[in-house]
């Protein structure tokens, strides 16, 4: 029975594994570009041409591929200034409100980034030296932000539907 559950889990988890593999490949590419550029600069006095442009684009890809995963995992850095003074019910409502506010904000942001992406493609914006088109990178950003907004909207619904612990103490 355990083997069947593991097989079902692997089938249903393929998008996350694919995303994590993509993140690992982008991180490896960033590492290799840096190593090649430093060795070329220090040993052969010939740096990797346009390493700065490629590094910038790959960092953008890394950030926007990682944003939905970080949101799903709940590993964003947060500051809890008022959490400790709240009860369970108030904390849950605060968490739901934060998810909703962030989902709405990111939804609007994704709309504006998508508009920028389409404008960038229409005008043919590209990097300075390699002439890599910037529109697809902006579309990736818009899609990633929109996906993160959807994840936060789902977390909002989950936070509202989760049962509260039954107690009559001061925590409520």
TrEMBL record:
Keyword terms of this UniProt record: Cell inner membrane, Cell membrane, Membrane, Transmembrane, Transmembrane helix, Transport
Protein's UniProt keywords contain Transport: yes
Molecular function terms, GO-annotated: transmembrane transporter activity
Annotated Gene Ontology cellular component terms: plasma membrane
Stretches assigned to the Tripartite ATP-independent periplasmic transporters DctQ component domain: 30-160
Superkingdom of this protein's organism: Bacteria
Annotated transmembrane regions: 21-39, 59-82, 94-114, 134-158
Function: Part of the tripartite ATP-independent periplasmic (TRAP) transport system.
Subunit structure as annotated in this protein's UniProt entry: The complex comprises the extracytoplasmic solute receptor protein and the two transmembrane proteins.
Family statement drawn from the similarity comment of this UniProt entry: Belongs to the TRAP transporter small permease family.
Stored PANTHER family: 2,3-DIKETO-L-GULONATE TRAP TRANSPORTER SMALL PERMEASE PROTEIN YIAM (PTHR35011), TRAP TRANSPORTER SMALL PERMEASE PROTEIN (PTHR35011:SF10)
Listed name of the protein: TRAP transporter small permease protein
Organism: Pararhodobacter oceanensis
Organism placement in taxonomy: Bacteria, Pseudomonadati, Pseudomonadota, Alphaproteobacteria, Rhodobacterales
């Amino acid at each position: 029975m355990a083997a069947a559950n593991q097989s079902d889990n692997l089938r249903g988890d393929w998008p996350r594994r694919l995303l994590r593999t993509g993140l690992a490949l982008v991180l490896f590419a960033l590492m290799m570009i840096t190593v090649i550029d430093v060795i070329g600069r220090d040993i052969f006095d010939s740096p990797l041409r346009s390493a700065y442009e490629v590094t910038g684009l790959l960092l953008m890809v890394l950030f926007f591929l990682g944003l939905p995963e970080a949101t799903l995992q709940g590993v964003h850095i947060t500051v809890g200034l008022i959490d400790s003074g709240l009860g369970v019910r108030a904390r849950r409502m605060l968490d739901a409100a934060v998810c909703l506010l962030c989902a709405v904000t990111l939804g609007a942001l994704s709309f504006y980034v998508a508009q920028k992406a389409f404008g960038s493609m229409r005008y043919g914006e590209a990097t300075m030296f390699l002439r890599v088109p910037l529109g697809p990178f902006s579309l990736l950003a818009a899609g990633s932000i929109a996906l993160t907004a959807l994840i936060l909207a789902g977390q909002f619904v989950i936070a509202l539907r989760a049962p509260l612990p039954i107690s009559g103490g001061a925590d409520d």
